[in-house]
Amino acid sequence: MQVTIYHNPACGTSRNTLAMIRNAGIEPAIVDYLKTAPSRAELARMIADAGLTVRQAIREKGTPYAELGLGDPALSDEALIGAMLENPILINRPFVVSALGTRLARPSELVLDILPDSHKGPFSKEDGEAVIGADGKRLR
Questions:
Q1: Looking at the annotation, which residues are catalytic?
Q2: Contact 46, 96 (CB under 8 A)
């Protein structure tokens, strides 16, 4: 199965998501979106396919969100997407695209909704929280 993760290696949620994909026996295409931002069309499609609004897909914490005045409700989705492309740190992460759907994997276990049930064994997040049991099945 082809899976693509828009990844930030400095983000624990993104690292956990990548590890869950690999635990399912899949080596995904990894896009370091801070270095290689998606196109406008790709970003808009991921947001729509994930069932999100543009505002739900924008990251505020640790970004220039406030400095850029992006909280202004008068700003259009196009303006917000433009800001996200100019400042990729504003793109919430990690987005994951598979044949089974697209998710903003926050929390990271949301990625399990779009992966095959092919886990290679138990999985726990970096903080020790168990997500997949010894039987390879999702715990929650």
A1: 11
A2: no
Q: DSSP alpha helices (H): ranges in the chain?
A: 12-23, 40-49, 54-57, 77-86
Q: Any idea where the domains of the chain sit in the sequence?
A: 1-33+93-140, 44-91
Q: How is domain 1-33+93-140 classified at the CATH fold level?
A: Glutaredoxin (3.40.30)
Strands (E), the chain: 3-7, 29-32, 95-98, 101-104, 123-124, 130-132
Predicted TM-score (pTM) above 0.85: yes
What CA–CA distance (Å, rounded) separates 138 from 132? 5
* Digit-coded pLDDT (tens) for 50-99: 999 999 999 999 999 999 999 999 999 999 999 999 999 999 999 999 99
